[in-house]
Design brief:
Blueprint: E1 7-9, E2 17-23, E3 26-31, E4 36-39, E5 49-53, E6 58-63, E7 71-75, E8 78-82, E9 88-92, E10 102-109, E11 115-121, E12 129-134, E13 140-147, E14 150-155, E15 161-166, E16 171-176, E17 188-192, E18 197-203, E19 209-214, E20 218-222, E21 228-233, E22 239-253, E23 268-277
Antiparallel strand pairs: 1-23, 2-3, 3-4, 4-5, 6-7, 7-8, 8-9, 10-11, 11-12, 12-13, 14-15, 15-16, 16-17, 18-19, 19-20, 20-21, 22-23
Length: 289
């Protein structure tokens, strides 16, 4: 398997670029700590365009099926819907009043149209994080606890397996998921990284798992059996989020925490790969169909 050379897109250098997706042909991503939802214009030398801005951190979004311009978001201490007016309609704020100061982190929709989002403590308190699942009826439930810095999740095409990274522990776990109930089962350890922290993830058409490895400037691909397959080096130390759009891999990066960031730290990159990825899944509010 071969890949092209990573190329930086757009002018922006993000503090904490994450949650990148391709929705209706356009790249959508967040800058978590500034609360901004952004999209990339066709002119790849231009600046990113702001779609929405919240007065609190914005971890990731998924489109809402059949409702153009509406998003479900992991933001602040919970889950909300965001429309064209930027005003959040809160479904739940389960991390309000937690023993540690908390925020939502990475999130995605699964193939059945549910929305999954992780939470973490600002100071990465061990075991303070959780994984929440939002059902079609808008009910938000905690499905996993005792996590530290959950990232992903990423789902197989049939929704029967979920990959979830605990970045602080350098581990990626694979959970069986009942596609009807949305209940995760007991996990297996899929990969343990000796260097860096696994961050955003995506599953390709061959069942391979891609993950951005924070702190290394590397993106890893694993085969479906967990065997390491390949590595792509980026000119940015902190790759954070990634997604596949056909045979194009997009990767975000971050400047946050770097004392002397380089010129491409915080950039969004694209690179051509051999195995395509599936379209971005949407949250299906009110119906699983």
């Amino acid at each position: 398997m071969t890949a092209g050379t990573p190329v930086a897109q757009w002018q922006d250098r993000l503090e904490l670029g994450e949650g990148i997706r391709v929705v209706d042909g356009r790249v959508v991503l967040v800058d978590i700590l500034t609360g901004r939802l952004l999209t990339g214009p066709d002119d790849r030398t231009a600046a990113l365009t702001e779609l929405a801005r919240l007065p609190e951190p914005l971890g990731a979004v998924a489109p809402v099926h059949g409702r153009p311009g509406q998003w479900i978001a992991a933001a602040g201490t919970g889950i909300c819907l965001i429309g064209p007016d930027d005003r959040p309609d809160w479904l739940a704020r389960p991390e309000d009043g937690a023993f540690a100061a908390m925020r939502m982190n990475d999130a995605t929709a699964d193939p059945q149209g549910r929305f999954w989002a992780g939470s973490m403590a600002y100071d990465a308190t061990e075991g303070a994080g959780s994984l929440y699942r939002t059902g079609h009826d808008g009910t938000v439930e905690r499905v996993l606890a005792d996590l530290t810095v959950p990232n992903g999740p990423a789902f197989t095409a049939d929704g029967r397996a979920m990959y979830l990274a605990d970045s602080a522990k350098g581990v990626i776990r694979r959970y069986p998921v009942d596609p009807d109930s949305g209940l995760p089962g007991a996990p297996d350890t899929f990969a343990v990284l000796e260097e860096g922290s696994p961050d955003g993830m995506a599953v390709d058409a061959d069942g391979g798992l891609w993950t951005a490895v924070w702190g290394t400037g590397i993106v890893h691909r694993y085969r479906a059996d967990g065997a390491p397959d390949r590595r792509i080096a980026l000119p940015a130390v902190q790759p954070a989020g990634l997604c596949l759009d056909g045979d194009t891999l997009y990767v975000t990066s971050a400047r946050h925490g770097l004392t002397a960031p380089g010129p491409l730290d915080g950039a969004v990159f694209r690179v051509r790969v051999d195995v395509p990825g599936p379209p971005t899944a949407a949250y299906r509010q009110g119906s699983a169909a």
